[in-house]
Amino acid sequence: MRYAQTTFADVFEKWSAEHFPKISQSNIHGYNASYKLCEPLYNMKFVDLRKSHLQNIVGHKGKSVTETVYTHLDLEIKLEAINKI
User: Fold this and answer.
1) How far is the C-alpha of 15 from the C-alpha of 79, rounded, in Å?
2) Which of 28, 41, 71, 83 fits a disulfide with 8 by CB distance 3.0 to 4.6 angstroms?
């Protein structure tokens, strides 16, 4: 898959495949719950994703999502996942 074509969903799928085997079921549940709230971003090309898109999700879903989305899908993790696609 090419970087310019990579979607938010692609990044999460790749990242979770690598990280879920290393973490607890409770953490996996938290990641998946946060990811589910980001459904409007699933098909968005990752190169087009901006902080404002995540803030919009957070604004509609509440503060608990803020910590999860920003902590678990921060730029470093996303770029690492993209580079491995």
Assistant:
1) 10
2) 41
> What is the CB neighbour count within 10 angstroms for residue 13?
14
Is 42 within 8 Å of 8 (Cβ atoms)? yes
**pLDDT single digits (tens) 39-64:** 988 999 888 887 778 777 766 655 55
Which is nearest to 43 in space by CA: 80, 11, 81, 7? Answer: 7
pTM for the model stands at 0.70
Q: Where are the alpha helices (DSSP H) in the chain?
A: 8-19, 25-37, 51-61, 63-72, 75-83
